[in-house]
Specification:
The protein is 80% helix and 0% strand. It is mostly helical. Helix 12 crosses helix 19. It is a multi-pass membrane protein. It holds the Pfam family MFS_1. It is found in: Cell inner membrane. This is MFS transporter.
Length: 439
């Protein structure tokens, strides 16, 4: 009760809100991406030994997919409490779940030490990562958007999205540093564990910042008026199922594009195209800069012209980009590959920037945490969970052209959902805060 009263008396400063939403998702995505990188570079050898390197790689990528199936579970669990007791407490719990799972991965014995128990424990920890991220992302987006002033909903909403490129840059950077300072034998012996264990420091920083924030004013009004829904997920499925399906499909192309440009590209670039781990990580880290730069640009456009229109235009560009994968992603052409990665991740930023804001505007406040988390993470299952696996299989059996067709086809579905969803009321237009923004 005291927490509620404090939340209604004390307001979060814009700087605190934006930093708290940014730091949390940066930590979450850093943890998530170090697993993705290790799934390509380390786990096939240490946790899935096989006489066939491709089989080991596919088994490792299969554990990568586990988190995407755990994320909707996290959405339901954390979303329930986020819509029942508040955004703040739920965000702290989600961050702890993700952080503990990541640190434990860094402490796991390998297949050589405990046999088949090693990949089983790895899969369990991966499930924990997905569970935490399933509750983290939606809460971070709502922390930003529900504190936003009129006309700046997408701008505030892009700050948690910036955690994705920052987390990726940190994870790629630390693996690159380890590759430079350690021998190959040292890296596989203990070096790969360092990013997982060191993430504990980042989690402590994130917890400190999250504990300083107060409840969002939009949700505080729901608490004050006692308008909470008893079982948010039941309300979503019974009254908002159409928007749940359309929101999931809207998020699909974003996931397919990102995991093709990161996990698949790193895997294929260092195996099928013959680039060294160091060479390709440098190319990816350079390209991630464009991902980070286009997120705020797309948010500004979304606030000015509307979230839906912005995403429709970007989706058309991604459909066309799918036809460039095969001619640009080739061996012995570092400049061409750099341009390819930069263009793909720039388009990723353009679609990712307004995505969180648009999804959050599909649902009313009392079920918004659950709704936005479910749509985003179900989109992860449809778009990302099998993307690296499917793309590797397509490239191996039919060539890179079919990877491009895969991306274009998924984006056409997203484009259709954007056309069907129509214009939604923005968070400020719902009457819970002063009106004045576009959707």
């Amino acid at each position: 009760m005291n927490d509620r009263n404090a939340g209604s008396e004390k307001k979060n400063s814009p700087a605190t809100v934006l930093f708290a939403s940014l730091i949390g998702t940066t930590i979450e995505f850093f943890d998530f991406y170090i697993y993705a990188t290790a799934a390509v570079l380390v786990f096939p050898t240490l946790f899935f030994p096989s006489s066939n390197p491709t089989a080991g790689m596919l088994q490792s990528l299969a554990t990568f997919a586990i988190a995407f199936f755990a994320r909707p579970v996290g959405s339901a669990v954390f979303g329930h409490y986020g819509d029942r007791i508040g955004r703040k407490a739920t965000l702290v719990a989600a961050l702890l779940t993700m952080g503990i799972s990541t640190v434990v991965i860094g402490l796991l014995p390998t297949y050589e030490a405990i046999g088949t128990l090693a990949p089983l424990l790895l899969a369990l920890c991966r499930f924990g990562q997905g569970l935490g991220l399933g509750g983290e992302w939606g809460g971070a987006v709502l922390l930003a958007t529900e504190n936003a002033p009129p006309g700046k909903i997408a701008w505030y909403g892009c700050f948690p999205q910036l955690g994705a490129p920052l987390g990726f840059f940190l994870s790629g950077g630390i693996f690159l540093l380890l590759s430079e300072t350690l021998t190959n034998e040292q890296f596989f012996s203990y070096g790969w564990r360092i990013p997982f264990i060191a993430s504990a420091v980042l989690v402590l920083v994130g917890l400190y910042v999250r504990l300083k924030i107060t409840e969002t004013p939009v949700f505080q009004k729901v608490l004050d008026k006692n308008e909470r829904v008893k079982v948010p997920i039941a309300t979503i499925f019974s009254e908002h199922s159409r928007l749940l399906v359309l929101g999931t499909i809207i998020a699909t192309a974003t996931f397919v594009l990102f995991y093709l440009m990161t996990v698949f590209a790193l895997s294929w670039g260092t195996t099928g195209l013959g680039y060294t781990r160091k060479e390709f990580l440098i190319l990816q880290l350079f390209a991630v800069v464009f991902f980070a730069l286009t997120i705020p640009i797309s948010a500004l456009l979304a606030d000015k012209y509307g979230r839906r229109i912005t995403m429709i235009l970007v989706s058309i560009a991604i459909v066309l980009f799918g036809f460039l994968i095969a001619p640009m992603f080739v061996a012995n052409d570092a400049i061409g590959v750099t341009l390819f990665l930069s263009l793909g991740l720039a388009l990723m930023g353009m679609t990712y920037g307004p995505l969180g804001t648009m999804l959050s505007e599909l649902f009313p406040t009392e079920i918004r945490y659950t709704g936005v988390s479910l749509t985003f993470n179900l989109g992860g299952i449809v778009g990302a969970s099998l993307a690296p696996y499917a793309a590797t299989w397509l490239a191996t059996n039919y060539g890179l052209h079919y990877v491009g067709y895969y991306l274009s086809g998924a984006t056409l579905l997203t484009l259709l959902a954007l056309l069907l969803v129509g214009k939604q009321k923005s968070i400020t237009e719902s009457g819970l805060t002063p009106s004045g923004s576009n959707s």
